[in-house]
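hi!! sorry for the late reply, been swamped w classes. u asked for the two structures so here they r. pasted raw, havent cleaned anything up. first the sequence of the first protein and right below it the tokens
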Amino acid sequence: MPLRVYSKQGALIGEFGEERRSFVRIHEVPELMKQAILAAEDERFYQHSGVDYLGVMRAALGNVVSGHAKSGASTITMQVAKNFFLSSEKTFTRKFNEALLAFKIEHTLSKDQILELYFNQIYLGQRAYGFAAAAQAYYGKSLKELSVAEMAMLAGLPKAPSAYNPIVNPERARLRQLYVLRRMHELNFISAAQLEAARSQPAQATPQGSEISLPAQYVAEMVRQAMYARYQDRAYTDGFKVYTTIDSQHQRWAFDALRAGLVDYDRRLGYRGPESFVDLATLPSGEERDEALEDTLAEIRDSGDMQPAIVLSAKPDEVRAFVRGGKVAVVKGQGLSFARRALSPKLTPAQQIRPGAVVRIRANPKGYWEIVQMPEVEGAFVSLDARTGAIQALVGGFDFNRRSFNHVTQAWRQPGSSFKPFIYSAGLERGFTPATMVNDAPLVIDAQSLGGQRWEPKNDDGKFYGMMTVRRALVLSKNLVSVRILMSIGTDYAQQYIQRFGFGAKQHPAYLTMALGAGMVTPLQMAEGYAVFANGGYRVRAYFVDRIEDQRGKVLAQTAPAVAGQNAPQAIDPRNAFIMTSMMRDVVRYGTANRAMSLGRMDLAGKTGTTNENRDAWFSGFNPNLVAITWVGYDQPKSLGRYGYGGTVALPIWINYMANALKGQPEVELPAPAGVVVRPGAGLRGGDEYFYEEFQRTNPELRLDNSGSVPGARRPDAGEEEAPSGEPSGGGGNEAPPQDAVENVKELLF
């Protein structure tokens, strides 16, 4: 019995085992079922010695007449040889080896033994191997309960399981079924009355049993690996049932949001051209051509709603393409807008949409077909319960079937500015306050401080704004302020401090570049780190398995998570978590993440992040109950271009998910913890400001006026509090700083 993986609501998200199979002895198979298979696949099975020479001659003659390779004349024995020992490549060498193996098999085994192997080994779609498993998969019946019509339907499947699947392609399956019935009658396996009765029986094949209904392959694979580590090979045979923490709705929202965001970004870069090409001239004509096209498409997986299609004709105003099931999709009008440039004859043949091109199409909700493409860019999304660490949704990439690499748990990437809150948090513990004035002015760091390389950090826009509060610096993501904070508290202290959030010292060397997120993290690490801010300062561990049951439903193991406020360890001062959350709420309200205000909530907090040359784009955000992290980038790191900022490519994905996840949920207002002093009106834009009871002075070395500013410091011009168009990453321009900020103000580390 296979390993089955479920969401916490009981939706099947994965099944692992020895394949869906039900072995039966050949003498247990109904005679009509055997006859249906022989009629469809090899009527002379009991007469030939492995290779049917009469069949080969008929096939050769048919191929000569048609001018194409219509038939390969494979016997059942040859199919057994191919299925057990050979590949499916269509070459003379493989066919020759297949014939030699067929002779060997016929010499070693009896006909019934060969038929038994074939009967139980052949793949028949719906993850079913063998006819007994197929009877259950398509009809929910045993072999003995099948009607003649149902037997003929199953017997027609080996030729092309995807093309003749009665669930996916009922029309083509019906034609194949009628052919098998006619052959059974011609071979005197059934009477005329049985033929007519079978023809009149409606096809009612439907998926039977549990079917995977939730796009959570990355989670299912995580469970498979964990179960194999625990139970070894028993994991695949003992019928374990694993219930995860994944919420079915949250998973669907996350899956759709990530894919939509990556597709939207990719569309801005333009259409790249067809995925590959098929030489239509080499294909047979008529129904055989459709079968050849079906075989080609069977080797290409769907990706969500993106279906592969083979172009049959292409004009500037219309493209006709073959899709699975023998249907022809007509793409025109708006459906061509994205890929219209590829219809130009001026392009190279490899770039053109022309007959034989393999493209992706999907049904637009407005009722027309459109050409789309699989994005090259990758992404990751994970959300978890801030109090327990239970993962609510996890999407490790655009398409698991394309790339099973799990970017949530396996991708080590630079976090950029989304790492700044952890440095600011360390600063609060060393006496900084949100109102502390720090100089946003140029810096040159000598080589010794960085371990051998001179560094001149800059803001993304190349500008410097002089003295500003720590709160405002985080809101506008000013790099020079972050570096000065880290210089003040010390890199060794910061390296030790960030380990409270779950980050490793090895991945974050004690250099000043740590202030700009030059270390390495995974999205899951970032989710755990931000959960500390969200839940009031407690360290919770992300987990995805709720419980493991045996095949009878007995609970074998269950996760007992550490819960914030109960048994979870206190990672940082609750006052620190509260103040940092307050500052990151202003990032959403007034700063680089202000697009999130479209959700109409005041309890959202977070931080954008973009690395040098826009190679990684992040948004890490939360409310007191739910943390969600989004990352976008290329597997082989390269620039995301002018669209690739955290606030422009990652944040929209987060917003899309949160719009659903928080819909109908009341806003959560956090009371200030004991030991926090509140100064009304002293914060950004007249908001409240918060201080540790013991750290109420902002800049001890400077005399502050009543506004919290520094006499002689340059005041920001009107409108400068708005977020800059880009996200600071340390790779900005080199514009000269304001002179009054450099000359008239004592330059401080804080």
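now the second protein. again sequence first, tokens right under
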Amino acid sequence: MTMLVALLAIASAPVRADEAEDRAAALVAKMTREEKIAQTMNAAPAIPRLRVPAYEWWNEGLHGVARSGHATVFPQAIGLAASWNTDLLEQVGTVTSTEARAKFNIAGGPGSDHKRYDGLTIWSPNINIFRDPRWGRGMETYGEDPYLTGELAVGFIRGLQGDDPQHPRTIATPKHLAVHSGPEPGRHGFDVDVSPRDLEATYLPAFRAALVEGHAGAVMCAYNSLHGLPACAADWLLDGRLRGDWGFKGFVVSDCDALYDMLHFHYFRPDEAGAAAAALKAGHDLNCGNTYRALGQALDRGEADEALLDQSLVRLFAARYRLGELERPRQDPYARLGADDIGAPAGRKLALEAALQSLVLLKNQGATLPLKPDTRLAVIGPNADALAALEANYQGTSVDPVTPLVGLRQRFGQQRVSYAQGAPLSAGVPVMIPETALRNDGKVGLKGEYFDNPDLAGTPRLVRQDRVISFNWDQVAPASGVDKNRYSVRWTGELLPPGPGDYTLAVRVARCFDCTGHDPVRLYIDDELVIAGNAEDKRVATGVHNADGRNVEAQIRFEDTRPRRLRLEIEHQGQDQGLRLEWLAPAEAQLAEAERVIAQADAVVAFVGLSPDVEGEELKVDVLGFDGGDRNAIGLPAMQQALLERAKTSGKPLIAVLMSGSAVALNWAQQHADAILAAWYPGQSGGTAIAQALAGDFNPGGRLPVTFYHSTKDLPAYISYDMKGRTYRYFTGTPLYPFGHGLSYTSFAYDAPRLSTPTLKAGEPLRVSVRVRNSGDRSGDEVVQVYLEYPQRPQSPIRSLVGFERLTLKPGESRELNFELDARKLSDVDRAGQRAVEAGNYRVFVGGGQPGTGAPGGEAAFSIQGRMPMPK
């Protein structure tokens, strides 16, 4: 063996846990205090003298790699949760981490500097409990149940990190610890007064599962305070529960600027040095932001110990050593991953499968679905052709996204599908100008001229017809042969108003993070400049600019429906991420247009719901029903409701497809629509999945991960984190659709469940066995759910999910399932927050939903003797 080969063999040897920490400690010992402090913030600079490359810790992978160009875009997290399939979540995590590794390698691989969104530390999954449908970020979670959330999180984390804990593909970072779920407008200074019972029974179990069972390598602390103590400075939470009770060995990162918030919103400390010292002493390691720049001052004042700083840095550099990110040479098992692994066929296939499994059939009166192959469809609704309703937030850029309109045309044939937008999302919220209103030389859409410079100069590199102007160009080139960082585009054609009246025209430029510049846009109507500006200087000609610096708008009146010449220009000089050409059209004109296409059809498919434009993270949205990314009403917005009602007057079958990231009170639709399908934000293949389900090529089998309520009046105060009256575990009313609900094109039957024993001692496990059979005439998926019902105790939930499994059965096929209920699953939490297995008489229900909801299944009784406290 030559010396070089020997050195390579040593360098490529697996990094043991203690070895990674030893190497990290040795490296940290060589750093100056200034170098150490610089490494505690997310944009860690290079240390050339120690051969430490620069590393940006911030990367996102909620439902595919985000914000770094093309990637496989899976259904948003709430849609993945609707699959109730832990194996699927692990596969999605595997594709996400594979693509993250590929992008890391393309950016230089081990030993190279890496900028934001090129790294291997993924700040996902979001496992906060979706306690209230009004929370705008609930779409990023796995729903309202702590057990379901924990199990899905474990699957996703295993996919992200891989099966080699000493050399993970990426490091997962479940967030936001703890008790964090809005309201968004006040999230930076919100203080949660949570009871010990609710903390232990609802808000912490998923984090415990993610870290104890999933072995996530990192965790993110939240913006909010708990009983007056900011989460990122809560030593009882970080050093106590996290590292003590749960034995967590990884690192803690703050939500971005959470340490800044400790000073400026919580008023927890008088200056940055005090805030930094409090976080460090509590067990926090990595500051997303720059408050830790004051650590030197904190050390000088004696408010923190440099040994604690060293301890945090050892955790951080041990993670970098395990990832193999720091050094060359190394036989990297992931070195082969590259461009061919991004958007690969296997990933595209999985994105479709995930979208299919996320679909939940809520109603199917008179077997309206599946549709016959020769059915002529009228497709209506603001989400029928909306890219944003596919990709959601924290998203990558889809290579070839399929909207519902396109998917239905591909499945049923262009000639059998007519389309009208029919309505906006809500009053005051512009939506994409539909293809029906854009023409160029008699063809649908506008002519796009793409230039390889930012000045619209010379001959276009490419000329093409763009059906609509709705593009996510985040870190990607808009066309072949065009530099993603320097281009310009001119679109020309005609705008066809559906009726006379007042219009709002808008150019939405997708915002960028930490921008050094924004993209100028100009819109001309009949050669008159009506919009000119960008998100930076807010210049407008005839119009206004909205508060969040993204839309440039103009109001214009059309006295008739004659075509108007249209020209739109964008000069890509900054870091903005694409654009949409939007409008608000007169309501009656849009409804009349919908009526005309419905008259030509046999059935109506209405794509209604919400959008990441109105629900999401800290949005600058203040229109009726929406507040800063949250909602203050959970019903379908009135203009969409009017569209459904107008469609129903036709007498033709009405199928409502709900696209949203949260529960919407579809009370009218439940009474009057013939079928309802919940599609969430289904990812790049969402349109294909929806079309296959409506056509019967796929039998929907998803289940609701949240309760659908009838009204906001059913809910406690949004600002309260008390679980009384919330979620299926504590809500005593009648829901519109219960947690766990979902229909099928076939039917299933259950034998009575069998228990391993009718009586057990506290601490012993209980085995539950059941046989389930497809009693219908189609193959289909059933989600078998196991619920525990407790003895009558004031603090106990009504019932709790303690097991589930998704399976596919052919007609007549049956399968025996066994569920092992260990002591933790059989435990309960008292008012003091102590978890224990308690004596008493219990019941267990096994079926296709909750007991008492009409779901098939059966129950059995058993008793527990004695009491056994459980560890935290």
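hope this helps!! also noticed smth abt the second:
Residues 3-332 form a domain with the TIM Barrel fold (CATH 3.20.20.300).
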